[in-house]
């Protein structure tokens, strides 16, 4: 009887030890997977933060480029308009007709700051 209890105890200890080793290996692999996933998550977060920063920088650059483009277009239109009015003024000056009206139209193209000083 004691021999049977001894053999059952030995078998139980061996089974528990094998089960312990199996669980250790299982959780070691799971732990390694969790660590890898955590590292990958941190890398992705850093890349996302850099991408968002780059995107905001690009958007601000796009806004500046748009401002430059619109300013250039406005300047070209302004110069073209003033040149037309100068041409009309020259024609009227040569003909001595409507000179005051042409001068007023030309002076109206000046920016507001200059109009207030006159």
Element layout with pairings:
Layout: H1 2-95, H2 99-108, H3 112-117
Main beta sheet, described?
A: none
Query: How many domain regions?
Result: 1
Order of helices and strands: HHH
Give the distance, in angstroms, between the N- and C-terminal Cα atoms: 124 Å
Number of helices: 3
How does this structure look, described?
The protein is mainly alpha-helical. It has one domain. It is 93% helix and 0% strand. It is built from three helices and no strands. It has helices at 2-95, 99-108, 112-117. The longest helix has 94 residues, at 2-95. It is rod-shaped and about 140 Å long. The mean pLDDT is 84.
Question: Which tags fit this structure?
Answer:
single chain; 118 residues; 3 helices
Give a short synopsis of this structure.
The protein is mainly α and 118 residues long.
